[in-house]
Task: inverse folding
């Protein structure tokens, strides 16, 4: 556990990505099984200890510490787990510290009711850094600035294998990934994930910044405004995966049930409705379904989902990823024809004479509520990740509105000392400001400092962590779409709002009205 | 008569040489000989009456004496006795071993005016040997670069150097120019610091594998850009909290403090059991709460002009 704690602290204090990778790689090479596999799972976010939730940690603290002293400490430290780790009386010493796998085994084999006691016994055997690592491990939120991809990259670097190969087998394996290490150390062939429906990494696109492509070389498709999804089926089981490889089958069971073919396909999950070319509802409708582990029949009826297919990775057990897009497209058309048309259709190829013609078609697509256009090289193989020059996304221009800052809240992580989350509003007809959105990105570090100072110097009221500010600062807000919302008093909600400019020059009275936003509805 | 007045006063008793306690421009000053030497170094020609540890004098019917506080060279607690009542002002203090100054002596009293810089239960300073070992390990792992340690120029810097020596590190230690005179002053007071070399003006190649000590304010300025691939360390009690270390861009936090931690603060109160405690200089609310829980009479004494962050 000490080695793992040292790794976690090293990652917290190291800013360079390369150094982080090296720290993880060194740890993975020298740490024995299964400790290193559990650590890898913790870093990649695939470790889930069902018996410990953050409420258990709070309960443990309340039982031991004076509530006032705990609250003062928590307010100062800013993180519950760290506060508990630091306040915990030090009883460690000697060589009684548990290993990572001992921790996992103990916590996995206990009940939720017994877990706090088990955790407390483990705390007594560790020093402050060990206790911190233990609590982070147990609750699954490492927060060390490591993505799953970075953890896999570090594994690849540790053992001299390609990260794409790691991705390929990753989703067929479970923590503590013993087979992965056996392969990494060259003691066996790469694990064969056949016979289970597992995730293959998506092929992703680069933004088309400017310039153009030739339509002889590139095919154009709509970029639909839904959720990118992969369906993998072995016949025996069918599973759905989101962009990052998280399984979402439970949220969309009717899709899995309707998929009566064997293979792996790539598409966009949409809700049927009367916008988006008359066939798909806005992203807003889809959000009603997302993130739900179980959906009722009523939900399924109210928000009927379907998948618009982009690509095919496997037809049966035949791997098509090494074939050019044109060949895969032919196979996809044949494959889709055998599927239930109520649940699956084909993403059409846009017929354009040339790039200028395509630009015209794209410009007209704003009303059709389409995110933009995809450009795919006709000879592109299906390759994991973002490869230069093969696929481009050509998004439509963002919409912008001038809004007035109304409230601000402190950020999290390294922004916890800054007011970095802003709620902004637009004017009603009778001259009131109503909130229309919230943004916490789009500004530079310099601008953040300025905004933070503005908030502190212009606070008119405080509600817990939220400060209400003088309604004097105009923020130019960029967003991808705006739609009707019953949850907001203003009746509108933005998609992906971000601050595009600080309009210190503009008087607040001249900011936009809510009716101006309504005019931009999809 | 004032203790550590934050504005020029006619008569001042000064506990120790840190800038938030020892200011310039007072009329008459009483302090330990070491503190007077530090004030003379910082402010030029200031004079005062030296009061060695254990000695005292009388003023307006009050007996005043100075006792070791263990904080930095010359640091003192001040005992005031009047009509059988004893009041102790701790000034800044710590109870841990420190090779650069006289250790803290508990002084029985009726009223204790205690500091509370680290007056939160999350602050437990680890053994300094562990922190020095961390520093030496980082140095060994980065022989092509250097480690630059941010340390307050009075007290912390000399303590880190002396502890490195105690751990057997006898290579030259490189220091920022602003620390030279204070290190000389310590050496003149029988605190041997070994071979010290000014880092300013040296070529990068000469600093490979070096440990460089600099005031925290120099760490992020142009001075640090002349160092070969420096790893930024900081010696401070605040380093105990990860977010604080990260905010200051510290890569190697060293939890080394010249102030009492939570355990030292509360143990001292239990040991002295004063009939009343006044809490100042730091987190008065949490230590006040602790006193309440332990049925000790306490109140917060809020002072102005105290910036607690820099000399942690
Ligand atoms: Zn001090
Ligand atoms: Zn002080």
Result:
């Amino acid at each position: 556990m000490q080695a793992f704690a040292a790794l976690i602290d090293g990652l917290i204090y190291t800013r360079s990505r390369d150094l982080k990778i090296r720290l993880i790689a060194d740890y993975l090479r020298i740490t024995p099984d299964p400790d290193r596999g559990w650590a890898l799972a913790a870093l990649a976010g695939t470790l889930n200890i069902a018996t410990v939730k953050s409420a258990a940690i709070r309960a443990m603290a309340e039982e031991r510490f004076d509530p006032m002293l705990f609250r003062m400490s928590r307010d100062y430290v800013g993180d519950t787990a760290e506060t508990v780790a630091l306040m915990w009386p030090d009883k460690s010493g000697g060589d009684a510290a548990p290993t990572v796998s001992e921790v996992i085994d103990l916590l996995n084999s206990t009940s939720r009711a017994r877990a706090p006691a088990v955790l407390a016994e483990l705390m007594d055997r560790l020093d402050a850094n060990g206790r911190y690592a233990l609590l982070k491990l147990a609750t699954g939120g490492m927060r060390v600035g490591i993505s799953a991809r970075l953890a896999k990259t570090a594994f690849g670097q540790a053992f001299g294998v390609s990260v794409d190969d790691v991705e390929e087998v990753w989703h067929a394996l479970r923590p503590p990934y013993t087979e992965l290490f056996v392969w990494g150390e060259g003691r066996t062939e790469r694990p064969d994930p056949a016979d289970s429906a597992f995730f293959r990494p998506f092929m992703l696109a680069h933004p088309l910044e400017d310039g153009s492509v030739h339509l002889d070389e590139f095919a154009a498709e709509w970029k639909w405004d839904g959720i990118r999804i992969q369906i993998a089926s072995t016949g025996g089981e069918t599973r759905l995966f989101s962009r990052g490889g998280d399984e979402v089958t439970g949220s969309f069971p009717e899709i899995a049930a309707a998929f009566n073919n064997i293979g792996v396909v790539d598409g966009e999950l949409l809700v049927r409705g009367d916008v988006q070319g008359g066939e798909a509802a806005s992203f807003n409708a889809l959000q009603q379904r997302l993130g739900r582990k179980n959906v009722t029949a009523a939900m399924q009826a109210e928000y009927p989902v379907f998948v618009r297919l982009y690509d095919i990775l496997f037809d049966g057990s035949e791997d098509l990823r090494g074939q050019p897009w044109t060949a895969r497209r032919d196979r996809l058309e044949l494959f889709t024809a055998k599927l239930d048309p109520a649940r699956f259709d084909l993403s059409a190829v846009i017929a354009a004479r040339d790039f200028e013609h395509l630009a015209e078609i794209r410009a007209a697509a704003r009303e059709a509520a389409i995110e933009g256009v995809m450009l795919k090289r006709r000879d592109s193989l299906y390759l994991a990740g973002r490869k230069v020059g093969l696929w481009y996304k050509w998004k439509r221009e963002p919409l912008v509105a001038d809004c007035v800052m109304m409230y601000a809240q402190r950020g999290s992580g390294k922004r916890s000392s800054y007011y970095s989350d802003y709620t902004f509003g637009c004017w009603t007809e009778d001259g009131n400001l109503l909130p229309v959105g919230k943004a916490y990105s789009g500004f530079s570090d310099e601008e953040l400092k300025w905004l933070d100072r503005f908030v502190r110097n212009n606070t008119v009221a405080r509600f817990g962590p939220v400060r209400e500010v003088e309604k004097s600062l105009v923020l130019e807000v960029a967003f991808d779409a705006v739609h009707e919302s019953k949850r907001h008093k203003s009746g509108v909600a933005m998609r992906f709002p971000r601050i595009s400019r600080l309009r210190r020059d503009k008087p607040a009275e001249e900011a936009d009205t809510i009716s101006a936003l309504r005019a931009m509805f999809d | 008569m004032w203790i550590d007045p934050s504005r020029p006063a006619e008569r001042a008793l000064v506990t120790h040489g840190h800038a938030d306690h020892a200011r310039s421009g007072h009329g008459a000053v009483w302090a330990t000989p070491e503190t007077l030497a530090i004030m003379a170094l910082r402010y030029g020609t200031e004079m005062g009456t030296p009061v060695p540890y254990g000695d005292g004098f009388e003023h307006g019917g009050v007996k005043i004496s100075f006792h070791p506080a263990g904080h930095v060279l010359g640091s003192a607690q001040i005992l005031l006795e009047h009509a059988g009542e004893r009041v102790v002002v701790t000034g800044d203090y710590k109870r841990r071993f420190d090779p650069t100054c006289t250790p803290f002596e508990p002084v029985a009293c009726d009223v204790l005016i205690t500091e509370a810089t680290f007056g939160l239960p999350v602050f437990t300073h680890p053994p300094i040997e562990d922190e020095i070992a961390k520093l030496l390990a980082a140095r060994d792992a980065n022989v092509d670069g250097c480690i630059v340690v941010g340390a307050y120029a009075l007290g912390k810097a000399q303590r880190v150097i002396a502890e490195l020596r105690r751990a057997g590190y006898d290579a030259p230690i490189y220091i920022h120019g602003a620390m030279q005179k204070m290190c000389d002053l310590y050496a003149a007071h029988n605190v041997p610091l070994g071979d010290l070399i000014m880092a300013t003006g040296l070529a990068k190649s000469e600093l490979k594998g070096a440990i460089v000590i600099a005031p925290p304010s120099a760490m992020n300025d142009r001075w640090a850009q002349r160092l070969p691939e420096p790893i930024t360390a900081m010696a401070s009690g605040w380093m105990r909290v990860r977010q604080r270390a990260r905010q200051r861009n510290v890569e190697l936090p060293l939890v080394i403090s010249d102030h009492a931690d939570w355990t030292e603060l509360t143990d001292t109160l239990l040991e002295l059991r004063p009939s009343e405690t006044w809490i100042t200089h730091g987190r008065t609310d949490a230590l006040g709460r602790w006193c309440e829980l332990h049925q000790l009479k306490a109140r917060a004494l809020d002072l102005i002009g105290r910036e607690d962050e820099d000399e942690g």
Summary: Residues 17-30 of chain A form the longest helix (14 residues). The domain at 2-139 of chain A is CATH 1.10.3260.10 (DNA ligase i, domain 1). DSSP finds 20 helices and 21 strands in chain A. Chain A touches chain B through 25 residues (CB under 8 Å).
